[in-house]
């Protein structure tokens, strides 16, 4: 059974940092892409970042580029999202998701429709 479990979300002040974790199980980690998405109240789900653990290639949405860093620890089947210079507009429930294969994403192609498996989410709240 595929499982994705997020952790690390909490309340943080603007300008602060936070690291989210996504622990995966039930599939061959290297054979899947792992993405982070977020959804704020009343807004559509937004793609944040993706990593292909097989080769470490990454993609970032423009809204987080330069502030967020995605990484993977393949020995632990875990993907991390290091978030710095947090802004109130980063407030959302953050989800990790997985799909088989390794995709090269661009701004136009990165979509949650590609992902088959989802975690339950972790709340990140950035206060001003």
β-strand number: 11
Q: Which class of secondary structure composition applies to the elements?
A: mainly beta
Specify the number of helices.
0
**Low-pLDDT stretches:** none
What string, H for helix and E for strand, traces the elements in order? EEEEEEEEEEE
Instruction: Report the end-to-end length measured between terminal Cα atoms.
Output: 40 Å
Which range best describes the helical content: under 10%, 10-25%, 25-40%, 40-55%, 55-70% or over 70%?
Answer: under 10%
Radius of gyration: 13 Å
* Largest β sheet strand count, sense and barrel closure: 7 strands, mixed
Please tell me the overall pLDDT: 96
Described by the principal axes of the CA atoms, the overall outline is globular
Strand content: over 45%
Describe the model.
By secondary structure, this protein is mainly β. Helix content is 0%, strand content 50%. It has strands at 3-7, 11-13, 18-25, 32-39, 46-52, 57-60, 68-73, 78-83, 92-100, 117-118, 122-127. The strands form 2 sheets. Strands 2, 4, 5, 6, 9, 10 and 11 form a 7-stranded mixed β-sheet that branches. A hairpin with a 4-residue loop joins β5 (46-52) and β6 (57-60). The mean pLDDT is 96.
């Amino acid at each position: 059974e595929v499982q994705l479990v997020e952790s690390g979300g909490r309340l943080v002040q603007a300008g602060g940092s936070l690291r989210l974790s996504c622990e995966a199980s039930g599939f061959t980690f290297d054979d899947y892409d792992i993405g982070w998405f977020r959804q704020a109240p009343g807004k559509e789900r937004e793609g944040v970042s993706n990593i292909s653990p097989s080769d470490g290639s990454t993609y970032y949405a423009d809204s987080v580029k330069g502030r967020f860093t995605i990484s993977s620890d393949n020995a632990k089947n875990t993907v991390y999202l290091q978030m710095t210079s947090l802004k109130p507009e980063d407030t959302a429930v953050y989800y990790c998701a997985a799909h088989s294969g390794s995709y090269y994403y661009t701004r136009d192609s990165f979509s949650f429709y590609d992902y088959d498996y989802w975690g339950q989410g972790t709340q990140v709240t950035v206060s001003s």
